[in-house]
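Two folds, back to back.
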Amino acid sequence: MLRITACLLLSVWVSVAVAEDADVDEAFAATPQAANTVKNDDPWENFNRKMFAFNERMDKYALKPMAQGYRKTVPQAARSPIRRFYDNLRDFKSGVNNILQWRWKDASHNLGRFLLNSTVGVAGFFDVATSTGLQRESSDLGITLARWGVPEGPYVMLPFLGPSTIRDASTIYPETYIDVNFIDHKPTSWAILGGRVLDVRSMLLDYEEAIVGDRYNFIREFYLQSRRGKAGMDTRDQDFDFGADDDWDDDDW
């Protein structure tokens, strides 16, 4: 039963994972305006809309009721430490990706947070790193590919998996493999992954009323803005340009 439940949650993992990295309030505020801009981001819209309708039904009858039940049965005082636990795991993955992106300062913040919260913060249930000035710099493999110059590709709505682009879709298997194999004990690994998806979906319940107009257009623009906004952080001065020794400074370490 645990494996069946975990597989169901994993099937919608990608559709909610972007919310972990996005500034939800800012993106939701900007999306209605962006939705009026005509772009050639969605050449497969007919197919994507059919997949979106299918995913909406899956969410309506499966994940959303589970998220609502989770929120009703688990008090906020318990949900907050659980969310911090998952944030702590994400800090480690972000740190590794920031190293791959040659963002040493961000990587040191993420890995420093992971080390401090995993020890003093009791496996991440308490966030003591923020008070020390270590800021979270979220990243993932899709952003790493973007920084390496891999083209975004068309927007695509994947059945079960939700919104993506060709570039981000190529990271689904390695990201999921890492999530599932992070802990050697498979039932525990699946339970942790399923719990994370459930926690993020419960968080998104607060934002559903903010969706205006065409839900498909809104979610597409929210996804693309969130991903491009994160990849757009590439131009900060602390970046390191391969082969350009004069770009090194103290902030890179």
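---
second:
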Amino acid sequence: MLVGFVASVLDFVFLQMMVIQVRWLVIGLLLMIIGMVVKSLARKKLVEAGFGSVKDTAYLQVVKGQQLVTDGLYRSIRHPIYTGAIIGMYGWVIMLSSLYGVLFVTIGFAGYLIRIGNEERMLVEAFGAVGNAEHSSVRVSIMWPQSKRSCRAGMQTVSRE
């Protein structure tokens, strides 16, 4: 993802000669704000579910006494923190109207998919059949809003004992 940011800045400065395209600037800023709001609301829910602080939500861990979050954004988006981050990153590169940035952020998205896989394993390990049964049918749309009842539960798992 960092490569996407660097590519978009270099593209903007050297190839686009720092010419601001207002429509892309506005769209990008809106996406960045939406991404920040989604991440903030999701992290707030995790703190309410047993995490000590917002900072603790950045680590893959299951904290003692943590509950499975099934309301708020987690009711319809399985991983809203990652979703918000992706929306914000695309907002950044769109704001600078950089196709190179979009390309590299898309490639960097694979890193999130690996992290999500690790998190899914932790979810099943921590919550057993409950976490697994509620999420088993949600593989393709794991980060985007769902209307199916089968994906109502979601959480960022993190484990520190």
